[in-house]
Structure formats: C-alpha cells, structure tokens
C-alpha cells in the first residue's frame, strides 16, 4: 500500500525494433546490484511493459521522484547499466533513466472510488440519482 505522499510514475521509451530480443534478454534478469540500486532509490512496484513495434512503458511508485532520480543519476551502478542500455533506444537524448518521456495519469480506480464514497455528499452522485430526488420533492 502506498503512503499518502507516494505517487505513481509512468513513462514511455522507444526501443529499436531490431534489438527487441536482446533488450528483453538483458532484463531476464537485470543485474542484482542494479535491482538493489532501484530499490535503494525509493522506487517500488516497478514494471516494464513492451508493446508492438518496440514501445516500452514503465511504471513505478515512489515517495519522492526527484530524490529517486538524483540517487540513480549519482549511482555508478546505474551509470554503467544505463550506458549499456542506451544503444537500444531511438530518439533519446541522455540516459534512459533520466530522459524518458513521462505520461500523465488521467484515471486511477482507487482514487476515484475513494472520492465517490467521500462524506462530502456531492462526490459520486449521478444525474439519474439527482433526477430521482428532484421527483420526490
């Protein structure tokens, strides 16, 4: 479960389609010391998803993303890993872990369920429910 300060981060990168098999092989498994650095940075629940054509989507949760980014930017292990991974990506200026395109979250089920059941009274009402209450008056 995420703490109140935690937030979700999603990003997109483009892998060279000619190198997809090698990219996947390099992640099965990732170096143990790189895994430890990701965890030490504060990132958790980290996943990578690969779409057709080499589009890579990453997701993780973190309490302080700027601090996690800074930690990894200063890590010699992450620098070695990212230097080896850089050749897989198309249209990327800089280290993959520092230059990925962030995606904007527009929906999160849990957040909306909480808002819909909040005691404010106005969250979660639907026009159909409002119409019924108008008929009763």
UniProtKB/TrEMBL annotation:
Stored InterPro entries: Dimeric_a/b-barrel (IPR011008), Rham/fucose_mutarotase (IPR008000)
Span list, region Disordered: 117-137
Entries under Pfam families matching the protein: rhaM (PF05336)
Alphabetized PANTHER family for the sequence: L-RHAMNOSE MUTAROTASE
Stated name of the protein: L-rhamnose mutarotase
Lineage start: Bacteria, Bacillati, Actinomycetota, Actinomycetes, Micrococcales
């Amino acid at each position: 479960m995420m703490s109140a300060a935690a937030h979700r981060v999603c990003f997109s990168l483009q892998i060279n389609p000619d190198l997809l098999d090698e990219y996947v092989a390099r992640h099965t498994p990732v170096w143990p010391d790189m895994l430890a650095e990701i965890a030490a940075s504060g990132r958790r629940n980290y996943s990578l998803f690969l779409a057709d054509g080499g589009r890579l989507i990453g997701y993780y949760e973190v309490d302080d993303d700027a601090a996690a980014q800074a930690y990894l930017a200063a890590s010699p292990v992450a620098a070695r890993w990212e230097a080896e991974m850089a050749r897989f990506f198309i249209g990327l200026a800089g280290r993959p872990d520092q230059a990925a395109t962030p995606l904007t979250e527009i929906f999160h089920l849990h957040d909306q369920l909480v808002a819909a059941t909040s005691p404010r009274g106005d969250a979660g009402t639907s026009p159909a429910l409002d119409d019924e209450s108008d008929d009763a008056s």
